[in-house]
Amino acid sequence: MSVQNRIVKVQKRNRALVRFDHARIGRAILRAAQSIGGFAQDHLPGVNDRIFSAYPTDEAIAGFLADTVVICLNSDPHHLISNFPPTIEVIQDEVLHALRSYGFQNTADAYECYRWSRHWLREGALTQTQFVGNGFSRERIEQSLAWNRQHGVDTVAGLNEVVRGGKLKPVVEAALHVYEQSLDEAARKVLARLSAGDPLRMMWVSGPSSSGKTTTTVKLTERLQRHGLRFLMLNLDDYFWSLVEHPTDWINDRNYETPEALDIQLLNQHLRALLAGETIEKPVYSFKEGRRTGSKHVKLERDQILLLDCLHGLYPPMTEGIEARAQFRLYIESQNALLEGDGSTKRLTKFTDVRLLRRMLRDVKHRNHRPLLTLLHWHYVRAGELFSIIPLLGTADHVVNGGFPFDLPALKPFFSGPESYWPQAAELSPYAGFLDAEIRRTRVTGLLDSVAGLTRAQVDGFDLIPGDAVLREFVGGSTVKIPHNE
Predict the structure, then answer these.
(1) d(Cα 178, Cα 180) in Å, to the nearest integer?
(2) What separation in angstroms does the CA of 327 have from each of 20, 138, 207, 271, 331?
(3) Partners of residue 284 on adjacent β-strands
(4) C or N terminus of the chain, fewer CB within 10 Å?
(5) For the chain, which residues make up each domain, given as ranges?
(6) Which residues pair with 11 in a beta bridge?
(7) Low-confidence ranges of the chain (pLDDT < 50)
(8) Which tens digits make up the pLDDT trace of 75-129?
(9) 8 Å CB contact between 386 and 113
(10) For residue range 404-420, what is the model confidence (pLDDT) as tens digits?
(11) Interior angle at CA 327, CA 322 and CA 328, nearest 5
(12) Domain 138-475 class, CATH top level
């Protein structure tokens, strides 16, 4: 389509005014789509199929979306004043708005991750070698896909054949062995840093929601404790702001997924004080009351390492003023590369969908949250990940893959049948305009329908999936002893 462009100038980040170039928006959108394999990755019947019919090429779709961005920019009269044009950040916000409004969810994620990766590069939090672009490491994905191919579980069809044939156990054992080896390597890196004389006093285990941080933290520290290391675990949940600081949104939800949900200034002050040998008055937070109810004396002994299990452990403001040599950062992500169907479409199932199922199960069992609430909240989860977690993974000292080929078969029995936790279409009817939740519900419903599941008895028993597996955090039955904080 053709639109009238009334935007003359753009304000750059240094506040300089430059000529507005409509074509640059289209090129940026196209690059984001191409980085994930094209707009076809976002083709959704009933949502954006008319766009694909009207615009047969990726270039044409990018042009249409760029035109939509211009229309949105034109709608704000302030942008039409020559000395008060839209800023670069405003334009990028409108790009994301256009992409998500038309169901181009994966393209939007790639665009947003690249956007914040560039932000952290400009801020000096990343070097060029640590820059992760859209957040998808082709090398890691290919490694995972190659491993799965060797074991016949690189496609949903292949995985189903293994499950139905009763041949999953050796795959489980082999996959867990790879995970354990990765933790062995992480422990060796920590010990090597200490042997080299690094003043290592702080260890972070970070990564997106439901990636397996808790089990990984315990397993890694157990390895290091066998070498004489001692740890003090600090519960960062106690640094949440009170509920009054978290106003609800249009669906009565609160965003706890952003790092700003924590009192970053106080946390950073306390971390620096602990490393300096001082005693802090750590807050004690009551989730029942939604506020801090007291404080507790905490001191880090000279022979202890401060242990922190946190979504946003790579977020620069948390560790401002603390030298990198004093920290070890482990990053965990659930990245099991699995192709849809028989693999002919060459489309990967979504890593985030597996984590959504994990978290939904955990929320039901341990937080008394309805599954629908987890689904409606997931857009906050993704926004936080794409801002302050995934773009910074290049700063990690070690990366662990917490995703496994047996995840979906083991999760399936909880999300199928008459007692399924998975939200039904009718439950979303009060939120008819919430496209993000509908897209995820439709996509995951199709994924669950395509996967052959284990039985509840197989999942509940330990013959197939051991009690110390990461997945036990979510399906239950974990034999990993979670240490008390402080």
Answers:
(1) 6
(2) 44, 27, 16, 11, 13
(3) 294
(4) N
(5) 9-126, 138-475
(6) 17, 87
(7) 485
(8) 988 888 877 899 999 999 999 999 999 999 999 999 999 999 999 999 999 999 9
(9) yes
(10) 999 999 999 999 999 99
(11) 160
(12) alpha beta
Q: How far is CA 69 from CA 35, 178, 205, in A?
A: 20, 45, 39
Q: What is the distance between the alpha carbons of residues 102 and 30, in angstroms, rounded to a whole number? A: 15
Per-residue confidence (pLDDT) for residue 483, from 0 to 100: 64
Whole-structure pTM value: 0.94
161-167: long-range contacts, CB 8 A cutoff, minimum separation 24: 163/409, 163/452, 163/453, 163/454, 164/452
What token pair was written down for 278? 């001082």
Cα Rg of the chain (Å, integer): 23
